[in-house]
């Protein structure tokens, strides 16, 4: 739409009219403000001029001297107080206004602009009560009591764990000891069986040797007629060995079945004068000393029934075996 000159003229006239109306409103407002000022309750101010009495004329002095005395105004009588059932409270005096002390000095600089708003919910912060000193003390006491309870429970658990561990170790130790005892008992049984077998073998060998010696010498020399009873001699040697074994503890260094020659000097009745180890002997020094001591402990040696084959000095072939 194209603007014409008529439109421009109308717009100009409207603008002028608007400005005239604004000026008129401003003038009316100023006039209204002046006329609206309240009048003083004391009336118009009184103007006075101080004049020296000596400078007045005679006529003015006479007029002033003839001025009548002012009449005193009558004092109004007090009104009677109204009688009521409930006396109204007396009006309290209005306290004088006291200028308030500023709690904080006025801010000298403007507050910094915070580009990012605070996301903290102020309502929730205000609703959360601030703990008082007594509440804080109770809270600390509760925390200490809970810590003591936790410490006591921890100690109890540690003590229970220690007892359980000690019980497990004691049980394991008992099991190991029982296993060792079982193995040792089995070894002792095996050793006893082996010793019994060796004894049986030795007895059988001695019996065979005695039988063979008796059969070979039976025809040449009859027993008790200037000859030697080899069977009785073999039984005598076996009796001596049994007596010595009863008093001997075989050292671990002497193996089973080891042989050693003993030379024993004795008196009739079996009292031993001396016992010495002779060659050949497969025992070590400890085994030799132990077998000599066993011969001395075994006295009196077997004598009754073996008088025919008794000898003051005899040589015994000893075989190591457990009793």
From TrEMBL:
This is Membrane protein TolA. Residues 59-175 are annotated as: Disordered. The lineage of its organism: Bacteria, Pseudomonadati, Pseudomonadota, Gammaproteobacteria, Lysobacterales. SUPFAM superfamilies: TolA/TonB C-terminal domain. InterPro entries: Tol-Pal_TolA (IPR014161). Keywords: Membrane, Transmembrane, Transmembrane helix. Residues 71-81, 90-106 have a biased composition (Pro residues). GO terms for biological process: bacteriocin transport. GO terms for molecular function: toxin transmembrane transporter activity. The chain crosses the membrane at residues 12-32. It comes from the Bacteria. It comes from Lysobacter arseniciresistens ZS79.
